[in-house]
Amino acid sequence: MDASSFIRISRRHALGLIGGVALMLPARQALAAPSSLTFDQMYGSVGVLGLTFSDKLNSLQDKPVSMQGFMAPPLKAEANFFVLTEIPMALCPFCSSDADWPDNIVVVYLKEAQTFEQANATIEVTGKLEVGSWTDPDTGFVSLVRIVDAAFETV
Amino acid sequence: MRGLLALLTATTCLATATVASATTIYPLDRATILSGSPFDMKVEFDGVVAEGDVTVTINGKPAKDVLGGEIAFIEKEADADASAIRFKGVTIAKAGSYEIVAKAGDETKTVTWDVYGTAETPKAKNVIFLVGDGLSVAHRTAARIMSHGMTEGKANGRLAMDDLDRMAFIGTSSTEAIATDSANTMSAYMTGHKTAVNAIGVYADRTKDSMDDPKVETMAEALRRQTNKAIGIVTTSELQDATPAAVASHTRKRGDKAEINQMMFDVKPDVILGGGSAYFLPQATPGSKRKDDKDFVKMYQDAGYTLATNKEELEKATGTNTGKILGLFHTGNMDSTLDREFLKKGTVGKFPNQPGLEEMTKVAIDQLSKNQDGFFLMVEGANIDKMSHPLDWDRAVMDTIEFDKAIRVAMDFAKSNPDTMIVVTGDHTHGVSIIGTVDDEKEGTDMREKVGTYADAGFPNYTDENGDGYPDKIDVSRRLFLAANNGPDHYETFRPKLDGPFVPAIQNEQKQYIANEQYKDVPGAVLVQGNIPRDGDTGVHAVDDVVLQSNGPGSEGFKGYMEQSDVYRVLADAFALGTKQAK
User: Which amino acids does the record list as binding Mg(2+) (chain B) (predicted)?
Assistant: First the structure.
């Protein structure tokens, strides 16, 4: 599947799609109202010798959250994940490795495929927050903070 | 019959010539090699050949007799349906011209190496090698005008670098292209060998493995082999970035930062100051960019290094008697001077106490100069390049001013220590020029019409009331207009970017860079159509020569036009690296 064949399920479109509603509503209902989390709130302390997660981030582990940011272009067209960044990404993600990523990125694993959103647009991602090191088996990409079972829409 | 015979001969010759040109010998033809320095030699044949058919001679003698070292014949190389021979860690002790001939059946390749010796006694005790990453003529001119001003066409003051005695034009091209990057350029300075874009301390062979390429000796390794001198590396970038990496490491791929961090540890420069702590932290620590459990902070501490993680700790570390300082001031690249010292933008909120290049240079020289055998210090003004890529000229120029302050520190040291050679240079250039000014006082709202060219440019109105060498503010009403000659689609705002470094273009789903709409609504902004391929994210390096300047003993070796790799030879000669000086 290439990027252009992603199914678009923004809230507006989902309302017009019976299948979309069927997919989306149970997921939304199953979750409590998501707590909003910002990039600034992710870390309690940021230092040369490492970062520590904030109490807020830790307390939201495995709970529904929503976060606003920018979508970095997907690693591979068929990947079901993308990277959410605080500012639009200018450097080429994955061009060489994950070496050039900023510290505060959130990896988003989508519940359903969605169309790539232009990197110029702010999006809001909703899903379950996962904290802890995890290596993506397909790409080797290491993440510390993830939003899984996620969906997003433009703000 | 005679005609046919002639034709056959001609065809045979042609075929032989074609095949012969496909064999590659590393080091490449016209390589210059420091006598006694270890290097790897590799012959890549065009096809699979039998080991028994292969001969490699050096000035007519079997190569193994001349070179020594380990020899391995590989019948079929990874990634190539062809054979190769590797000679690992070989040396040539005697200076002179060496002709290398590799033959296998019909394949023949001949290259010539110039093995050079050095003076027997050093001319310089210390060398301070200051690299403005991407430093171009426009950066220098802009730094001079912004820092000192200009009246009636004459500069009101001079940069430190303006008073260096000797100079040369440096050709920066890589082995595979006229174009170039910080890896191959710094590698040429620090090894005396040109190489390929993205490569450091190696010749770029045909196999994909980035760690198996034929190595050449780095400056740090040569110093450890021949001298007891102290070694220092100071940068505002990640310490694993190409420029600092090239002082002490070997990889085909500059992105191998975790490996580079290990290679730098293996050499253990005495003073290491910069960013990139992410590669020092074990993977379990949030913020780490390693994929293993190595804790380099602890490893360095165990090896006797005093650790500093901010400005205050660096100051304290100056008094250390351990002789070794590890200063890590950012997980990634340190912030630009404009953000760090003035605007407090970028990542300064997260890393508020980063020292500047001037302070780091001072601490490094204080520490290294305690070594009675002298020192080699590499200082990099990294953000000149890091801010030129995104066309953020105000930041690039402010970093040039800071770089010049570090040069002043070095020149002051050399004044009282005249056995010190100072080299100031860029590694490559950027496609940028100053074309005039932007004057807000001109009528109207069309910013393009406020650009002053020729006589209309007038002089900018920066001030430096506090005399710190930096303009009191960057967003004066009549300011320098620097323009890039290349780049992706972007919005030209004609103004300094006070909210944080410029991000000219961002990637779309087709992996093409499009103008960042964040700047679309800045009053008077105009869309500038890009002129490089659409997968290019920012402005690119120029192929233009770099201007190198130098002072002190040995600096007379710099003159006219020089290949970047020839700079190493001047350094090696100043330090007499052909002669064993270590106990």
Answer: 133, 241, 243, 380
